[in-house]
Amino acid sequence: MLKAILALEDGTILEGKGFGFPCEVSGEVVFNTGMVGYTEALTDPSYFGQILVQTYVLIGCYGVPSFSLKEKGIPLHFESEGIKVKGYAISELQKNPSHWSCEKTLDQWFYEQKIPGIEGIDTRELTKKLRIKGTMLGILKVGNYDLKEIEEKLKKIEDPNKRNLVEEVSISEPIEYNSGKRKIVLIDCGTKYGILRSLLSRNLSVIRVPFDFSAEKILEFEPAGIVISNGPGDPKMVEETIETVRKLLETDLPIMGICLGNQILSLASGANTYKLKFGHRGQNHPAVDLKTKKCYITSQNHGYAIEPNSLKETDFEPWFINANDKTIEGIKHKKKSVFGVQFHPEASPGPLDTEFIFDLFLKEVKKCQG
User: Fold this and answer.
1) Which of 52, 131, 254, 340 could form a disulfide with 265 if both were Cys (CB 3.0 to 4.6 A apart)?
2) Is 344 a catalytic residue?
3) What 3-state DSSP class applies to 180?
């Protein structure tokens, strides 16, 4: 049995059993309240730079499916080509999964991907601590460790949010996915495969471009619409994308932002963003449409939000708000076909309540290109 330790910057020390790859990592320690969908969460690029704590008590029950299971040519149960979290903290690991699609165990997958995991700790108690004190930096080590050495390293942890994490997960060259006659550009800030699947299923041709692609280069594709994807870290670090979107807002093209893309839209328009105490990460976050008053259950993964007062000086207005903490969950342009949502309308995993957001975007794309 491998030893493992999770140490937080406030001095909290949690000792448990290790799984996956024996190594040491550091990152921002965050929690997810979802009961299912660990393969989607683990491969979500928005978790890049983070050690993920899963509140649900038993993880790995259905194992890890094959990447060969696809929809529209995109892997079905994953959100990128591999695990994106720095480390994983769970209560109990299922070592003998049972499911028709299971290709390997979670332990085997983590070892292959060289990612460490810790089990046998009280993740719900840990989550309470993170909710009270806020998200903290931490160290996760699988293998033999020296406690004093870990405590010394805690004093020198680098905050991943001070780096441009988007640059580390975005593609380097454009990729084209041909599906239909209408062409849209997807600015890849760390896009989930679910967004690609949702766009392709609506018979759209998608040109996925790097985060720092200029507005001029994007417009050369003559797209009928623009999508700004989700991604990791502080949105203010993505200056190149903000500048690109600022120029794209001068056009009449339909634009949709998702998660980080929603924040980038607000920053490009002159609004401000701030870091949430512990973020929204799970599959049951209630978002209220301010016009219809309908409440939707949404899948979310973000640590930053739009400053409400700063939005008043822009051409955008709030569209959705979170029923729990009243944070902005979506914005709409007052004159143009431009909008963004803080949640994930493609879910993956999660409820499909807000998949209609893609249909609204498609409607505007059809108006633009016919």
Assistant:
1) 340
2) yes
3) coil
Do 63 and 132 have their domain in common? yes
Q: Which residues pair with 209 in a beta bridge?
A: 187
The secondary element (H helix, E strand) that includes residue 309 is helix 308-311
174 and 115 in a common domain:
no
Q: What is the token pair recorded at 187?
A: 């600015």
CATH of the domain at 233: 3.40.50.880
Query: And the tokens for 218?
Result: 């994007």
Is residue 202 domain-shared with residue 262, that is, in the same domain?
Answer: yes
Whole-structure pTM over 0.90, yes or no?
Answer: yes
> Could you give the number of structural domains in the chain?
2
Residue 367: HSE in the Cβ half-sphere, 13 Å Cα cutoff: 12
Contacts of 334 (CB under 8 A, 6+ apart): 315, 316, 317
- In terms of domains, do 169 and 158 share one? no
346: annotated active-site residue: yes
Question: What is the full per-residue pLDDT of the chain (370 aa) written as tens digits?
Answer: 899 999 999 999 999 999 999 999 999 999 999 999 999 999 999 999 999 999 999 999 999 999 999 998 999 999 999 999 999 999 999 999 999 999 999 999 999 999 999 999 999 999 999 999 999 999 999 999 999 999 999 999 999 999 999 999 999 999 999 878 899 999 999 999 999 999 999 999 999 999 999 999 999 999 999 999 999 999 999 999 999 999 999 999 999 999 999 999 999 999 999 999 999 999 999 999 999 999 999 999 999 999 999 999 999 999 999 999 999 999 999 999 999 999 999 998 999 999 999 999 999 999 887 6
Closest of 330, 291, 292, 338 to residue 311, by C-alpha: 330
State the catalytic residue, choosing from 77, 285, 333, 344: 344
Out of 40, 167, 329, 346, pick the active-site residue.
Answer: 346
Same domain, 311 and 336: yes
Please identify, among 142, 162, 182, the residue that sits at the C-terminal boundary of a domain: 162
Q: Which of 162, 187, 221 is the last residue of a domain?
A: 162
Q: 259, 285, 333, 364: which is the annotated catalytic residue?
A: 259
Residue 204 DSSP class:
E
The verdict on 189 and 91 lying in the same domain is no
Q: 334 exposed, middle or buried (CB, 10 Å; 0-12, 13-18, 19+)?
A: exposed
| Structural domain that includes position 116 | 2-162
